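re: the backbone from monday

yeah here it is again, tokenized this time
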């Protein structure tokens, strides 16, 4: 019985290889894209440059249909209302929630001054 093994060796060009190898040695996963570079014709791996998310948001108040959050630079207001209520009721509900969240901000401002 004859077993034929065909070994294919291909070199992969890794962009920022030292950074990626330190991540791999640390046990982290490196995500990226593997492609053949059109200019050089080499098989190339390019890692994604993902930035960590620093979500330091505080929920100021939880509303009936949304929330008001505070981040270091912004206040974020979110409201989600069903279309089935009709345009006029959606308008009323959103204005009511915005008004209540603004009242919470005013109370917090007063408490911060004390």
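seq for it, each position gets an aa:
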């Amino acid at each position: 019985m004859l077993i034929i093994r065909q070994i294919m060796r291909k070199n992969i060009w890794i962009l920022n290889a030292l950074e990626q190898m330190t991540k791999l040695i640390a046990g982290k996963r490196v995500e990226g894209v593997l492609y053949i570079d059109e200019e050089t014709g080499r098989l190339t791996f390019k890692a994604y440059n993902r930035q960590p998310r620093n979500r330091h948001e505080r929920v100021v108040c939880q509303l009936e249909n949304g929330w008001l959050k505070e981040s270091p630079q912004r206040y974020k207001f979110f409201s989600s209302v069903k279309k089935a209520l009709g345009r006029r009721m959606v308008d009323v509900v959103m204005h009511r929630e915005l008004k209540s969240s603004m009242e919470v901000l005013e109370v917090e401002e007063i408490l911060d001054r004390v």
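The beta strands are 12-14, 32-36, 43-47, 58-62, 66-70, 75-79. The radius of gyration is 27 Å.
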